Amino acid sequence: SVHRVANPYRITFNYAQLMHNTGFADLTDLFGRVKAWKHIFQYVRPDVMVFDHSPTGLLASRMVKVKRIIGGSGFLIPPAETPLPLMRYWSKSDADKIRKSEQLVLNTSNKVLQALKQPPMNNLAEMFQTDAEWLMSFPEMDHYPERKSGNYVGMFSPPDYGEDPVWPAGKGRKIFCYLYNYKTLPALLKLLNRSGNRALIHGPQIPIELRKKFSSPRVRFSGKPLNVQRLGQECDLVITNGTFGTTASFMLAGKPALMIPTNLERMMVARRVVAMGAGLAAPAGKPEMLGPRLKALFQDEKYRKAAQAFA
User: Fold this and answer.
1) Cut 0.90: pTM above it
2) Element housing 202 (H / E)
3) Which of 143, 162, 182, 307 is the residue whose CA sits 20 to 30 A from 109?
4) What is the CA radius of gyration of the chain?
5) Is the bond into 83 cis (omega within 30 degrees of 0)?
6) Contact at 8 Å (CB) between 51 and 69?
7) Residues 6 or more apart whose Cβ sits within 8 Å of residue 300
8) pLDDT tens sequence across 11-29
């Protein structure tokens, strides 16, 4: 984690810097973790390996002669470019600093491979090259909009998982919210109570005191997972923190989204939905933007039509 790493990047611009912050710049740390993976492989003796966001496992698997598959959302499988492409593609960045940070991670990884008598990699992109790739995403929602090619297999929600939604009684549009706990969440909950709509919220991390304070005839909290397919059929709008799986599920249902991203990966998701015209985003630190965004999503049919076109 960042607090344990020497000289971490407080703002990460590409996947290599993310790897730096999670131990790939520390030879001792990385070697120990790769050795642990090696012992797992020796014990399990797999015929096929599927990797979902596991760069250390990918590095370790280079010494095992089995078929390998990499799977996950676009964020988890950066395009095979050198240097690895920007995650903050909308921000100014220091190209030289990015190249140096990637070279450091590559050098550390190659020292581990050398110690294990494995050939080195020419670049970091080689780490993500496997026998097959499952991009569990869509070109329109790929975290990396400039990806030149990819094996997009889409994504889905389990059809019968979760309880059927029970909406607050009365009139008003139905808003489903899948939310984490974040600093300005009370401002959103207050807005939902005032909006004249009906909100059903699933947020396992939302403190019980917030749930009690903002529960009302208009706002209901669900402590258990809800059936996404039913929600997609019944709701008029979804509000998320930009989480890929949930946001994509409601795009597939043709429902527009209001997104309040709380980290870089979710910011990348929100930008793709906004670019598609199927939703709007508001910074978590600017809750005053939520009211106008919510109003716009309901007043202008273009957002719903864009979501339906994607679906």
Assistant:
1) yes
2) strand 198-202
3) 143
4) 22
5) yes
6) yes
7) none
8) 999 999 999 999 999 999 9
